[in-house]
Amino acid sequence: MSQKQPKKIEKLDPHLVNQIAAGEVIERPAAILKELVENALDAGASQIIVEVEDGGRARISISDNGCGIAVDDISLAFERHATSKLSHQDLFAINTFGFRGEALPSIASISRTEMITRTNADEHAWKITIEGGNASKLMPHSAAIGTTIEVRDIFYATPARLKFLKNATTELNHCKEMISRIAMANPSVHFIFKSDSKTVYDWSAGTLATRIGQVMGNDFAQNTVPVLLERNGYKLEGLVSLPTYSRSQANDQYIYVNNRWVRDRNVAGILRVAYQDVLMTGRHPLAVLFFNLDGREVDVNVHPAKTEVRFRDSGFVRSFLIQGVKQSLLASQHTSSPIMGNLVANAFSAPSPKIFTNPQFNNKPILRDSYPSARPHPIAAFIQPVYVPVLEQEEVVTDYPMGIAKAQLFETFIVAQTKDALLIIDQHAAHERIVYEDLKAQWSAQGTLPSQPLMQPEYIELNESDCALFAEHKDLFEQIGFVIDVYSTKTLVVHSTPIACHLQGSKEFIADVLADIKTLGEGVSAVEILWEKLSSRACNNSIRAGKTLSLAEMNAMLRQMESTPKSAQCNHGRPTFVTLDKKSLARLFER
User: Fold this and answer.
1) What pTM value is reported for the model?
2) How would DSSP label each residue in 236-298?
3) Average of per-residue pLDDT across 579-583
């Protein structure tokens, strides 16, 4: 048998190198649009016109009124790893969008590209054409100051990649999504987007709030709360949706790091953590968040497309971002779903208040344990949800934030009255939140939850990797009330389960928690995953629809809601009450 001979190592042809780089940077027409628009922004453009044909597959044109490119640098701009955007050759001092020097040569290597550019020092513009990586001579041209780049016949030079493009509608949607992401982070720039000669978007320059409204629509602005948090040079601002306003997919989540849109699992995981107590599993909040920090604290050079980042202190960044979003959600915790009108004001008008107040009820502070309460011992609430009277019927008080109970409808809803509004409360949803927050308060105070022994141990079969993962987090399961032993490399034996939730299906619960720990990694901690799962089980001991309540019991629940965090939503994100103010009620009767 003859021995295989080693092959000679050869340096790749520069044109082939550019085509390889194009495979990393240029996935589809939207990627070309991104690179060229970011170049226009780096050039200081105040107006950018984007035109596409056939979803960008036939043609993409980007015109800007930026500073242009000096005539001596035009040819060099299409050389690999040539850039004007790295100051002092410092890869960790990046304050521009494009800096790798790969975009233009990569685009030119797989298409027919034409660039016309002019600086304020030039008497006229200059034109260059590159076809399949081969450049023409510079030619004088007539054009205003700025740059226009036109890219035609994408992937014509690499037909194997051409067949992976989708139909025109799909590619156009990707282009529209890309220009929307960029436009939201640059409200001072006038963006015009055209498809097949028809104007799709014409977003004039304005404020950040105005631009978000232009891109996301008025419905988003009316169902969001502002986020603002600053600490030690870190700043987070933007808008996040109320828990009652969500989507089945996470498509409407825009997270920017130093004005650069990122698609990072760990960064996006903050939203799941922040909403874990108020949003139903399978639902996703909407968000537009801008996170700004020193450029030396973040590495944006992780991926060729620059959509992923790496933070120097990822633990602090994660907790900072979660705190910023949670703080804003807590500020709106007693905001109900109004039947008429809207309670959400325009964002970015003022910082979030230090003490969370309820604008719906005369700015009276909503603080835990600040109102009379008949809350029984937390464990008693789980075993037998019974209330004792808080207010005698003759003690009519109308200035409580949640008002005074007047009646029960369909053995499901409590009707309450405040000084100037009518409230309708879902008794099951409200009590579910009360039970869950009491559960968390007890765990926070004692560091554990009591267990309920099983009559017979439950044996759970898992694979070896899941069993090993459980062993790493066994103490966390014990803190919420489990008593579990690792019986073998593939078997667990459950001796006790949490009293509070009367947990059914221990195997499914444990398997779901372990699956999320593996999937989410550092994005969500194991503790947060455990509580996310418990939130959906905490409703088992809540007062159900169909249970008749006395006025005393209803008033006791209202007082508990006033001192319970996040009481405007149940654990699944549904509203616990809706409001009809006196003026709206009068309008119903044309008064």
Assistant:
1) 0.69
2) EEEEEE-TTSEESSSTTEEEEETTEE---HHHHHHHHHHTTTTS-TT-EE-EEEEEE--GGGE
3) 90
